Amino acid sequence: MNQLNKVRICLLLNTCLVLFIGFYITNFASESKYFRFGPNEDFIFISVQINTMEKYCSLLTLICVNDIIRVIIQEFGDPVLFMNVYNPDKKEITEFTKLELYFYANAMFIINNIRYIFTVLINITQIDIALFSVLVEEVIVIFTIKMLLDEKKFINKNSLLHNNELTTITIEMDSIDSINSKKIKQ
What we know:
Blueprint: H1 3-28, E1 44-45, E2 48-49, H2 53-86, H3 98-125, H4 127-150, H5 163-185
Antiparallel strand pairs: 1-2
Helix pairs in contact: 2-3, 2-4, 3-4
């Protein structure tokens, strides 16, 4: 099986799993305190009562900063360390000494695990907090993946879009650009 089909199957399975879990939860957890939104008198996050909009917004800010930093680390720092440590085909390391790589990999591992405790607490407090965290991460991931893909050269020209559609889009964009430039000149 080729890599594209493996990815498609995994995406389909992942989607089905999320839908199943969502269906299960909505049918059997109707009275849960987890499915509330905003500050509440009994909303406790790591021993802090989140009962005002000010505390709630400060919690959202904390989560936003945490998620931005976590995504940047996962997208840029972790792959460098993991590919140097765990890639069996990479036998020569030129960017680090052995001691540096040992230190950075272990330091990143322990700090990530400590931060993971905070992430678990975010996910189990209230659904709006967990959804906000997912949304922030996804927005940041969109940008980081684009940055990483822009650094690569793609050989496979096959696409889900047909070449005719791409040509049409290009022509339409060129037409819009020429119309705009004519308006500016007038």
